[in-house]
Structure formats: structure tokens, C-alpha cells
Amino acid sequence: MKIAVVILNWNGVTLLEQFLPSILRFSADATVYVADNASTDDSIAFVTDNFPMVHIVKNESNLGFAKGYNEALKHVDAEIYALVNSDIEVTENWLLPIMQTFEKEPQTAIIQPKILDFKNKEYFEYAGAAGGFIDKYGYPYCRGRIFDTLEKDKGQYDNDCEIFWASGACFFIRSSVYRELKGFDDDFFAHQEEIDLCWRALNKGQKIKYNHKSVVYHVGGATLKQGNPEKTFLNFRNSLLMLTKNLPKKTLYSVLAYRMILDGIAGIHFIFKGSFSHFFAILKAHASFYRLFSNTYKKRELIQLKKYYSIKSIVMKYYINNDKLFVK
Q1: Which of 80, 194, 282, 303 has the fewest beta carbons under 10 Å from its own?
Q2: Which residues contact 144 (CB under 8 A, 6 or more apart)?
Q3: d(Cα 236, Cα 292) in Å, to the nearest integer?
């Protein structure tokens, strides 16, 4: 099977200098692409001068994660897309177990490797850890990471299993499925677009897997820091867009109403912390969601999964019950 490793880049020459060599060293069977979102630094010149074997796809502007990949992948010919953040360090034979799974399991459409923290390699990393799930109200969490609590990797998740969503930090997908689903949703720009895509794949009867034998290390927050209000805006807004598109119709409005309450509580929490920029980011997120609601609702598929969540409320489990570890 033909595989393409596609690295989305925007003004990330420093990250390319640090991490592109490991990808090239351990990806001999893949064609490597850099999809550039109209960088204004020396990214293109650096890749061209130092790694002429890397293919470059140039987007006309900074299209974000979602549209950036959608546009770039129109120019990539492969059966499997490996979408890899520019701050990912890969390991030897990282592609082999992934490709073996795709070859043996034709019903598996999307796969995520084990994602560990580049800065603290004994621990799982925030963006994906050992595979993702959501609760009834659309809050994402992972095996190995619930909210800001990261588990140490003790081999407790060294089992391949079906998951609900795979991290966009290192995301493998069959190109045929990507095209069938029309890729990521451009309206998301960045954050949670991979969860939305996975949910749509599941609605179509596809399977999503975690493969523990493939290991990568992720820096995280290299493009948009965790404390940036823009990240708060995108996460809150895109979560609501995702629910509007994918929730079963019977529960859509009740879940959205409950989310309004929880988001309001989160906003008040930010006020008490003195984080007014994040409070206003939540208000901005809701305003943007209301503007996009009608168009987003039209994107709903005819069939939605009735059983999409593993537990009812990860918020209750984490903050009320003080249970910080993963339980499906």
C-alpha cells in the first residue's frame, strides 16, 4: 500500500529543522510532503535546500489545519495519508504496525499511534495519548489523559483497541475514506476537526483503532499555546459545531442546552480566576456558533450513532468524583 506522510507547516522552520530528519530517517517506505500554509519564514527554502526528496505543496494562504490539509491533499496520491504535526518525533518502524493493521483489517479506516510527551517521555501527551473518547455532552478525553491530568506510561494501554477519535497530531486515514467524507470541515479552521471527522466515519460504519506498537513523541502547543484565548475560542465553538452535526436528533437540543449551562459555568470560573480574555473567548465562541448553526445543521447525515459516548459525564467524574484516571 502506498503511504504519504504529510506535514502541515506554518512558519515552522525551527520545528522542521528539529523533527523532519527523524521522519525521513524512519519513513523509507513513504513519500514525505510538507504542506505549507503560506509561511513567511524560511520554511520552504530550508526544505528545498536541505531535503530535496521532500515534496512541497504550497497553499495560497494560512488556511488553518482543516482547510490547509483539505487543499494540500488534493495534490497527494497515496492509499494511506499519515497526517503529522511538525512537532512530532517518530521512532524506528513507526509505520510498519500501522500499515499491517490497514492491510489485515479493511474495515479499519483511521488509526492513531501511541502519543507520548516529547518533553517528558515517560508520560502520555495531551493531544491523543492512547486514543480518544467523548462523553454524552461532547467533552473529549483519552486513555492516559483526562482534562489536564496525564498518566505515566506503564504499559497499561499496550493493547490495540477500537477508539472513538484519533488525534490530529498523528492521524492515519485511508484516502478513499477521506474523500468519501469530504475531508475535514473547513469551518472548524483548527481544533476538534479530527473528532468531527472520526464521528462522521463512525456514522458511516467505519472503524477507528489505536495501535500501541507505533510510538511517536509530541511537543504540543508549538503552534498555539495551551493558555492562548484563541485556543479556548476554537475548542468551545468547534465542540458545539461538532455536536450539532453528529448528535442523534432525539438528544441534540437537550445536550446543547446542557452544554450552554456548562459553558456558562466555565466562563464564570475564568472570571474568578481573573482570566477575562478566556471568558470573552467563550462569549465569542457562542456568538460564532449561533451564526454558523443553520449552515452546520444542514451538514447532518441521515444516520447518526445512537451510542456514541462511553460515560455520561467526564466533568462529573473528574471534578466531582475526583477520579482522574481513564475508565471506559
Answers
A1: 303
A2: 124, 129, 130, 150, 151, 153, 156, 157, 326
A3: 13
